[in-house]
Structures are given as structure tokens and as C-alpha cells.
Amino acid sequence: MKIALPSIVFLLLLFSCSPRFDVQELQGLSFAEAGPIQLTPSFELFDWRYDIIRQEDSYSDAEGNFYTSDRDYHPIGFNLGNGLFIDMNDNLSFRIDQLLGIDYSTGATIDRIVSRRSGPAIIENYQLTTDAHCITRQLASGKERERCSSYEISEKGVILQKRNTVRSILRFAEDAIEFPTRSKRYHSLTAGEPGQYEYRLHTEGSEKVIDIYEQYERELYLRNRFLLQRTEAGDEINISRIHSRGNTLLYTMYFSEDRIVVFKPNRTGFTINFEDNGLHIRATNGEALLYRHRDESGFDDLEEERGSSR
Known about the structure:
Elements: H1 7-17, H2 23-27, E1 40-43, E2 49-53, E3 56-60, E4 66-70, E5 76-81, E6 84-87, E7 92-95, H3 96-99, E8 108-115, E9 122-128, E10 132-138, E11 144-153, E12 157-162, E13 165-173, E14 176-182, E15 185-191, E16 196-203, E17 206-215, E18 219-222, E19 226-230, E20 237-241, E21 248-255, E22 259-263, E23 269-275, E24 278-283, E25 288-293, H4 303-308
Antiparallel strand pairs: 1-5, 2-7, 3-4, 5-6, 6-7, 8-9, 8-25, 9-10, 10-11, 11-12, 12-13, 13-14, 14-15, 15-16, 16-17, 17-18, 18-19, 19-20, 20-21, 21-22, 22-23, 23-24, 24-25
């Protein structure tokens, strides 16, 4: 089902002219039914993600100054449906590879352009094959910098090699995914009761359930920290933070055939617009990203995209 208004132009104007969504205008649009939400253990190796909730860690230096930094992505987590993914570090995001229909078994070559209200645009190329992944960034000097890693997916698990360091990302076991932390301990996602997965810590001779992920007909409980709810009509997905005194709504999502709209109660957020050869993300904070399948022109014609992606 298409959005009823000339929505591409409307939403671009909405982003370029205002730092917030006009909710009344959004309510006048027509959206399609969202897909089901579900818990499917999975992995994402190369950070092809767009953040919805990115956790932060705080630390201080010797002088007592406090700092925060984004928490690292974890390669293991759950696919939640509709391109959503939550990792074991509680980072919730859209998987760009899923939104673009890319699979590790087939590979792809993608150009990525990031522009913000200030500063130069970032132009990168992602090349994924069935056993390797390379990122090439175009530098301001006109030169290119490349970083590559290799990986292997087998019946036993997943192995990743970066900068001559080889490590096991996960092992496949009966009804479980196991991933190491230290030499004599590891974590696992283990199937429990129907619709339930247990996050376990395994040490020598013992194991402990740390958290539980639960799936119901229209609800997902994620470690008793986040709640995803799909409305009965199926046209809306809400993300809330779970508290003992009541849940707090964080985001609302609407879906159509050619776009996803995501916004907070304060009406800030972003849209993902699907195009013929990729997708375009625009946020109310001025950030814009363009992902598109690479053609023969390489980086040469991407300079023209710098301005149009803003």
C-alpha cells in the first residue's frame, strides 16, 4: 500500500525545513501493515547497522573528568523482524543488509554516503563476498584507504579474521548458539520454553541464566529491559523501556512498501526511503545517509551525490 500523499517530496521538505515531525500530517498518511515481530537468534559481523538505541558507557580519567562513548556492537543477537536487530550489548538497530536484501551467501557491493549539517561528507564502499569483507573510504586528499577482513561460516560456527587475528565468533550447538568470552567460560543463547530464549553464562562445571528473552503473539520482551509491541491492527510498532513503575515509550514506527518512519514522543526521528537501487535515510538532526548498489562508475559519480544526500 502506497502512502496517500506525494510523500517523498513531503517528507524531504519536512526534514529539510523542521527539526521535528509534524504528527498531524503523519496521521494523514496511509501506511501498510508491518511484518510480524519475532525472536530469531542471529549474527551481524560487519556493523551494517543504523542505530535506533545505541548504548553508552561512562568512564573517568585520572583528573576526575567524566566521558561517555558508544558501546561496541556485539556480533550476536536476535533478528526481530522488519529489519530490526538487537545485539547482546542491548544496541537496537536496523540491519542495512536485510533492508537491502543482501545475504552472506551471495555478497554485494554497496556505496555509502554520510552527510551532516556540518563537515565534509563521508564516502565509503562496502564489498562483501562469500568469504571476505572490505571497506574502502575516500579521503579528503582524493586517496583511498582500504580495510579488509575474512570470515568463514560453516555448520560448526563462524570464524572471523581481522588484522591477522583469528577468533571464533560463535559455535552452533543443539538448540543453542555459543559464543566465547574467556578461555574457560562462554555465553550462550539457549532455547527454553516455547517462545523463550535464555542468555546463559557457562563456567567450568556450572552454568547460570543471566537474562531471558520472551516472545508472545504481538510482544517481545528483551532481557526485561525493552518491550516491542505490534498493534492489533498491525500498522504500528512501539518500542518501550521497561520499568518497575510502568513502561516508557521510546519510539513509534510506521511502515509502507517504500518507507519506514521512526520517531520519538518529542517528534524527532528519521525516515528510511527505499529507492530502485538502494535506500536513503534522513534524520531530523540533519544527518543523511545514502546506501546504493555499486555500478561500474565506482566513486567517480558520487561527488554529485554529496549535495543531494543532504
